[in-house]
């Protein structure tokens, strides 16, 4: 599905937002700015801003829509292909037919082969065999918070204008007030004046740990094969202990890479692609010639509730890609710590090493995968990987740590940190 409208300016915010302007001309045959919106592909909305002639918009939009539709159908783990689909099998059907050798399309074969390569180069920190484990934790994190009861723990952000950032046990609660235990002290508050989250209970957390401990994907694998010479056929065989694929960490970036290639092949160099504010591809900004046609990208401060500092910093960029992974949206609290939707492939537990990690590089599919892999790495491992290991990735990294401080591993980009 897609929608189309013309805009003078669009500012993209949340994890990243891009500040840019495009100039509209008055003649229909001249280049204009168009904002294309693609809904319901890979569980997100993608915004594409391009500068082209008006008579090309319909064709360009239709072809981009076909690309997103293709990779949406091939990579989904939640539903089978339609009966009239031109494709052979997708991730859903691979998961359903575990242990069997099944034929797949070349596009899916290429994507899975690339995933295997990245897994090897990241020492297993990018792992698409995590589907069952991710689903277990995601179900817990996405559960709607039940009614507050005496004895429950809540994590309090703040009360009125006072920052609290602490876990309390509920002593009593009604529709208007809540009494919280802090050691031997008990204080009452107006519920509407508190900003808080109900924490996951120890029983719930341990039940999840026990469930994931029953899973072991270390001895599980998949084999990719081809047959034929001119008319090749492509196959995948899953083997070992049963697992399921989840390739959400790369699917958006991979599809954006194909779309970016399509735009450039058609002479469209002034563009921006934004999928869910976490996977962004940029060409040149036609309206900033004085800034060498660069976009200005801002990284949101993930801890802006602690201060008035809403932005961690900015950098200028063009003809490059950006991917950010953070714990902004999908999370709950347990014992005062965030339980995020990013799960470690090493110990199968939620990770909370950083506020956010942003990766910059020429390959949007690669950096989409790497931002997730890096988020699962402890700082010592990540620093060694970025500075010592010969991984061969042409990337730059910006880390917003849990204390709000920023670490950068940059070679070309100039990051300007905001200090107030």
Can you walk through the features of this model?
The protein is of the alpha+beta class and 420 residues long. It has eight helices and 24 strands. The chain has helices spanning 57-75, 91-96, 106-121, 131-142, 202-213, 248-265, 364-375, 379-387; strands at 2-5, 9-11, 16-21, 31-41, 44-53, 101-104, 153-159, 162-173, 177-182, 185-190, 194-198, 221-227, 233-239, 271-275, 279-282, 295-300, 311-317, 320-326, 331-334, 337-340, 354-361, 395-401, 406-409, 416-417. Strand 12 (221-227) and strand 13 (233-239) form a beta hairpin.
Helix content: 10-25%
Numbering strands along the chain, what is their spatial order in the largest sheet? 1-4-5-14-15-18-21-22-23
The fraction of residues in strands falls at 25-35%
Work out the number of β strands.
Answer: 24
Count the helices. How many? Answer: 8
Give the overall form: globular
Contiguous runs where pLDDT drops below 50 for at least 5 residues: 1-26
Largest sheet: 9 strands, antiparallel
- Mean of the pLDDT scores? 89
**What structural class should be given to the helix and strand makeup?**
alpha+beta
Radius of gyration: 23 Å
**Span between termini:** 42 Å
Please supply descriptive tags for the structure shown above.
420 residues, alpha+beta, disordered N terminus
Quick recap:
With about 425 residues, the protein is α+β, with helices and mostly antiparallel strands. About 25% of the residues lie in helices and about 35% in strands.
